[in-house]
Amino acid sequence: MIKKTAAGGFALAALFAAGNALAQMPAPRATIQTSMGNIVVELDAEHTPATVANFIRYAMEGHFDGTVVYRVAPGFVIQAGSIDAQGMSKGVHDPIPLETANAASNLRGTISMARADDPNSATAEFFINLVDDPGLDRQADDHDNKTGYATFGHVVEGMDVVDRIAMVPLMGGMGPFPDADPAMPVTIVKVSIQ
User: Fold this and answer.
1) Beta strands in the chain, from DSSP E residues, in sequence order
2) Which residues contact 171 (CB under 8 A, 6 or more apart)?
3) Which structural domain range is residue 99 located in?
4) What three-state secondary structure class fits 134?
5) In this model, does residue 1 exceed pLDDT 50?
6) What global pTM score does this model have?
7) Higher pLDDT residue, 26 or 99?
8) Does a structural domain hold residue 95?
9) Is 24 within the bounds of a domain?
10) Which single residue of 19, 40, 166, 181 could bond 49 by disulfide (Cβ 3.0 to 4.6 Å)?
């Protein structure tokens, strides 16, 4: 993980400002070029501006390039972000606050931020929902924005690629989910922003 610095607070403020500026523009799109085909995602900067700005920052830095889809859970999600084909994790920026208060539901084809138990722990890990999963949404009685997983866009092209990835043989044995790791790496060649 990249160390926090005194400038970390300024970087977070800049990220929020960038997110607010993005919310005023037409919806940006990200093309996730994988070894199995392209997935195009329309990003929802209107409802999750800081999350979208965070994803775009990682994409523009080339963070996702050369990483792999390291978790395939059929009937649930495919997940990627910072793990390379050797199971090693790339360094990440400071976590971002959870933005589930205005986020869309975790429906099939949405892209969401993965996080740890701490609701404000998302960095670069993301997943694409293979099915509708409202159990991943913010709980109705959550007034403090501490539950759920923030959706920040949806697949507009390439859901067939997502479905093909969801059918690959597993048990590759690498990364944080060794039993859900593809036996043959599914590489993210590049993520570009339009």
Assistant:
1) 29-34, 37-43, 67-68, 71-73, 77-80, 110-113, 126-129, 151-157, 187-193
2) 178, 179, 181, 183
3) 8-193
4) helix
5) no
6) 0.87
7) 99
8) yes
9) yes
10) 19
